Each structure stands twice: as C-alpha cells, then as structure tokens.
Amino acid sequence: MITDTFIQGPIALLLITDRIHQLSSETGVGGHGIFLGQVRNDLIDDRRAKAIEYSVYEEMALPIIELIKNEIKKSLP
Fold it and tell me: How many CB atoms lie within 10 A of CB 52?
C-alpha cells in the first residue's frame, strides 16, 4: 500500500524533487506529471486571497490510488 501520499500544510518544491529523485533508479518509472501554481492576488468582496485549501478523505482515496497503480502496472509490457 502507498504510504505518506498526502502532505499536511504547504508542499515544498524540494520535497517533490527529492521524491522524484528517490525513483531515479527505478526502471519502470519514467515520467512525472506535476502541477505548480500560486495563489492569485485576487480581491473578492474586499478580501484578498491568501491561500488555497485542499483536503482529502484518506481512507477512501488510498485504496483508489492503489487500484489505479495496479491497473497501470497490469497494462505495462
């Protein structure tokens, strides 16, 4: 089962690059899709946007991630 998939708080770019580097010796891993973004300096109802909040229901998400991972592995030569 996948572990430490979800990060609490800000996600540091160094954390992402370190995790990709950890996979550098894997012969079956060759691509990574990464989205980097920033909070726009929007003014909404006289309030300035400061952050993006996100959440996940880990107990439901982890088995689905594992299922997707296994389906991908089955489709590889």
Answer: 9
The one-letter code for the residue type at 46 is D
Q: Per the domain annotation, does 58 fall within a domain?
A: yes
Give the span between the Cα atoms of 47 and 58, in whole angstroms: 31
Domain membership of residue 39 (yes or no) is: no
**Which residues span the domain enclosing 66?**
50-77
Instruction: Compute, in degrees rounded to 10, the torsion defined by CA atoms 62, 34, 8, 6.
Output: 10
pTM value surpassing 0.70: no
Q: Give the integer Cα–Cα distance in Å for 49 and 37.
A: 14
47-57 residue pLDDT tens: 998 888 888 89
CB 18 within 8 A of CB 24: no
**CA Rg value for the chain:** 17
Q: Is 14 helix (H, G, I), strand (E, B) or coil?
A: helix
